[in-house]
Design brief:
Chain lengths: 246, 242
């Protein structure tokens, strides 16, 4: 039965990857060829179709990590096996967060160099994103350095701290001057993009969201296998120690 | 230890109220202060370390009076931050001797009282460092606050509590990890960055008198309320993490 289930997952996963790659390819064509050239920035603006979707997604995955961590803390004593699945989701989401926020920062730096003439500035949005990146790197550092058996709990606790920190970071850094443009969507009367740019943007959000979900699930599966291996070897060690005492 | 047991007996059966909780906190605070009084390791270590940082910075920047007003707020907090790392790690290592921490874990006393007592003790140690360091700072950097100097008396305890509360929590969290001494700054600094921003901006605003520190003080208050609550709620989870 296990084999059957994993085969279904395998077929589904292959289909998902194929769809994702197709979506990304179509989105890239729309972004790089079809979408009109922007009036003031020219072709440089096309990085927008990568920068904004990844930044939106890198603000989304921390929520997955936070919710999974809360579930882990709730299930930790009540249902330990279920808690482990929540923990696998949490670590997968944290790693995807780091990947996406790194891409967001790097594309932002490239765009900043072209549009502002500087790679980096200590502006509100840039600093907030950098702090988000730092928080999740420190989360991964904690996971790496803590000893087995308590890693999950400590990491879940840190995730709760990070979740509370993010709004405070956002608020505190708002009180600095702002160089980054206001949010393109929902940022007031002047916001929004030309309708002809919309398909490229929407397809890129979709494509990169699907890619993020694929990474998340792949890493989740990997972590589950690692957990099963760890449990099996722990069981063997217990059995081995029982034989010696007999 | 005897007072601890006594407090527990008094508290355990009759009243589970606020009074018994604070008697536990007071007990832990007394214990930590007594331990420190007998060894004086943390305070002396922190003080010397902070002094060294202050001297290194004054070598690096060669401060005149106008420049030093701009940078002193930042330097002061960097010195205190680094110095408190040394003490925070020690404050839990003490509890590991003779497996005292395991005894704490088994005790029916509220775990957060242990945390609060220790955090308050650490607050007192760091405030003591600040009191000793302040005159040295004024001498080395030719300081003279152009803003309202009395507001430092508000900013310093608020900022210190922001550092020490989370610091004590994360020191306990990294207690049983490999490379404990390395891990504490790696997780404490990213979480504390908004608080560090707040205390540095507020101190600079007071020293230069150019802007109003009010908004940063409000930030520190909000930060302290939020994180003290989370620390108290989650400490039990961290103490019995395995």
């Amino acid at each position: 039965m296990m084999v059957k289930r994993s085969r279904i997952f395998g077929v589904f996963g292959m289909a998902w990857v194929a769809l994702t790659l197709a979506a990304i390819a179509y989105a890239s064509r729309l972004a790089l060829v079809v979408a009109p050239t922007e009036a003031t920035m020219g072709n440089v603006q096309r990085i927008f179709y990568y920068h904004v979707p990844t930044s939106m997604l890198s603000l989304l995955f921390p929520y997955v990590n936070f919710v999974a961590s809360l579930f882990y803390l709730y299930w930790r004593r009540r249902e330990p096996m279920r808690a482990l699945t929540a923990d696998a989701v949490a670590i997968a989401a944290a790693e995807v967060t780091v990947v996406y926020s790194s891409i967001c920062l790097l594309t932002g730096m490239l765009w900043g160099r072209a549009a502002w003439g500087i790679w980096w500035t200590w502006d509100a949005r840039l600093t907030s994103m950098l702090l988000l990146w730092l928080l999740y790197v420190s989360y991964l550092m904690l996971r790496k350095l803590s000893s087995t058996g308590q890693t999950q709990t400590l990491a879940a606790v840190l995730s709760v701290f990070a979740a509370i920190d993010v709004p405070i970071v956002y608020m505190s850094i708002q009180w600095w001057r702002t160089q980054h443009p206001a949010p393109v969507f929902g940022g007031g009367a002047d916001s929004g993009i030309d309708p002809s740019m919309m398909p490229a943007f929407v397809w890129n959000v979709l494509g990169w969201a699907m890619w993020g979900i694929f990474l998340l699930l792949f890493r989740y599966g990997l972590e589950r296998r690692r957990q099963e291996l760890e449990q099996a070897s722990a069981l063997r060690a217990i059995e081995g120690s029982l034989e010696i005492t007999q | 230890m005897k007072t601890l047991v006594k407090a527990k007996n008094e508290a355990g059966y009759e009243s589970q109220g606020l009074k018994s909780y604070f008697s536990h906190v007071l007990c832990h605070l007394q214990k930590d202060l007594r331990l420190e009084w007998r060894s004086r390791d943390s305070v002396v270590g922190m003080l010397f370390f902070a002094l060294l940082v202050v001297i290194i910075f004054s070598l690096a920047f060669d401060p005149t009076a106008a420049v030093s007003r701009q940078i002193a707020g930042g330097i002061l907090w960097v010195a205190l931050l680094f110095a408190s790392f040394t003490a925070l790690n020690q404050s839990w290592t003490r509890e590991q001797r003779n497996r005292v921490l395991d005894a704490h874990r088994m005790s029916p006393a509220p775990a957060s009282a242990l945390f609060l007592g220790k955090a308050l003790a650490n607050l007192l140690f760091v405030v003591l460092i600040e009191v000793v360091l302040a005159p040295l700072f004024i001498v080395f950097y030719n300081l003279h606050a152009l803003g309202q100097g009395w507001m430092l008396a508000v900013v310093m305890p608020l900022g210190t509590w922001a550092l020490v509360c989370n610091g004590t929590f994360f020191a306990a969290l990294s207690l049983r990890t490999r490379n404990r001494e390395l891990l504490l700054p790696l997780i404490l600094v990213p979480i504390s960055l908004p608080a560090l921003l707040g205390m540095m901006q507020a101190t600079t605003a007071i020293l230069t008198g150019e802007s109003d520190p009010g908004i940063w003080i409000r930030l520190l208050v909000a930060y302290n309320i939020a994180f003290t609550t989370v620390c108290l709620l989650l400490f039990e989870t961290v103490l019995s993490a395995d």
